[in-house]
Amino acid sequence: MKFVMMRCCTTPIVLQEYEWSTNAVMEKLGIELVDVSELGCCGYPLRNISFRAHILASARNLALTEKENLDLITVCNCCYGTLRYVDNLMKDDPSIRKEVNTTLEKEGLRYEGDIEAKHILQVLYDDVGIETIRDMIVKPFHGLRIATHYGCRILRPSKVAQFDKPHFPTKFDELVEVTGAQSIDWSTKLECCGSPLWGINNELSLDLTETKLRRAKESGADYLCVACSYCQIQFDRVQRMLLIERGPELKLPSVLYPQLLGLSLGIDGETLGLQMNKVSINDIEFFLHHRAATEA
Question: Are residues 143 and 265 in the same domain?
Fold first, then answer.
């Protein structure tokens, strides 16, 4: 199995642990990730500044991926949502498609719509499969309670995202539970993490994050689990600021899904970048070691 890897703009700079854990897990599962050096920003930050530039940025990445004759995989909900939106838009509107291709042809590129942009969770669930992953688990997380946070752009708009049911999703929960952990039910599971407001209205952004942390803790979660670059920044780096400003009792560490899955596949924490999370998750390895010692 082989995919072009779309590395989110934020991951090489502030979320290297997401890249490390994704690389390690995909290698363990036998999935080859192809890096195309010409890939650029998905265009998400440009949407409300220049809609044309927003479309062109995504279309260019899709066209570059088509040259490889492979589907594209991304670890970021915003990249996923943007790529899927632009792909749908150009398939539905021939005039936009023609205009975009006229520009792309200056680089020898052309969008044909022959490949699919996929999220890492989609690849793991649909292409690899729950049962294949289950057969490879060597260190299950029995007794660990996880609050899954889907993130907005992987579910909505449902016509574009097409990952799971927008109001009652279960796929991420199943992927968490294949590691042996329990995916808990919690009231604000599908609400925004607050990231889109950071830098615009920081207090409101912190309010949204605080509400999510409180509700997850009240529901008995040991950790949050995310699979989106911006959600992880909010629940890790911004949470660290929140703990200083509003109190340490709010603390609820956020583990990236490839980190959780990687540990259950037997990959060591350092390779998965556990030490790089700002709100420490190192005790998740202690949980595994303690449980293994107890069972022995």
Answer: yes
- State pTM to two decimals: 0.95
* Helix runs in the chain, H state only: 11-14, 16-28, 51-68, 77-92, 94-104, 120-122, 130-136, 158-161, 171-177, 202-218, 229-233, 239-246, 257-264, 283-295
Q: Which of 120, 141, 156 is the last residue of a domain?
A: 120
Domain of residue 230 covers: 130-295
Residue 110 sits in the same domain as residue 141:
no
- Terminal-residue alpha carbon distance, the chain: 36
- Here the tokens at position 150 are 């889907």
Is the domain of 134 the same as that of 181?
Answer: yes
* Full pLDDT tens readout for the chain, 296 residues: 999 999 888 999 899 999 999 999 999 999 999 999 999 999 988 888 899 999 999 999 999 999 999 999 999 999 999 999 999 999 999 999 999 999 999 999 999 999 999 999 999 999 999 999 999 999 999 999 999 999 999 999 999 999 999 999 999 999 999 999 999 999 999 999 999 999 999 999 999 999 999 999 999 999 999 999 999 999 999 999 999 999 999 999 999 999 999 999 999 999 999 999 999 998 898 787 666 555 54
Whether residues 106 and 166 share a domain: the answer is: no
- Residue appearing with tokens 């979660």: 221
CA distance 91 to 101: 12
d(CA 221, CA 243): 17
Question: DSSP per residue over 83-98, as a string?
Answer: HHHHHHHHHH-HHHHH
